[in-house]
Amino acid sequence: MPSACPRQSMGGQLVRYEIRVEGHLSETLAKAFPELGHVVMSGQTVLFGPVVDEAHLYGLLARCQSLGLRVVEMRQLPE
Q1: What's the Cα-to-Cα distance from 62 to each of 22, 41, 68, 69, rounded to whole Å?
Q2: What is the pLDDT of residue 79?
Q3: Can you tell me the mean pLDDT for 40-52?
Q4: What pLDDT was estimated at residue 14?
Q5: What range does the domain containing 52 cover?
């Protein structure tokens, strides 16, 4: 079973994650995550992109919390 913590693959590529938050993020809120792309689907905003390491992942989650965003799901994307 793959680890939930981000890691670099053998090829040195970053691990990609998807973070789903409740509701539609305004462009202003989306700009709080400049390193991630985003799309709105089914009443949720999906943030996605490469995560450098575990500290980066926890930083993204802390940013969500500080902005009052409700994280619905977080998952590592297949390579």
Answers
A1: 16, 23, 10, 10
A2: 80
A3: 95
A4: 82
A5: 15-76
In a domain, 32, yes or no: yes
Q: Is the pLDDT of residue 52 over 80?
A: yes
Positions of E strands within 6-52: 15-22, 37-41, 44-51
Q: Does any domain span residue 29?
A: yes
CATH number of the domain that 61 lies in?
3.30.70.600
Q: Work out how many domains the chain is built from and give that number.
A: 1
Tokens of 56: 């980066």
Instruction: Assess if residue 4 is contained within a domain.
Output: no
Mind listing the pLDDT tens digit for each residue in 9-36?
434 568 999 999 999 999 999 999 999 9
Q: Which two tokens stand for residue 27?
A: 């462009």
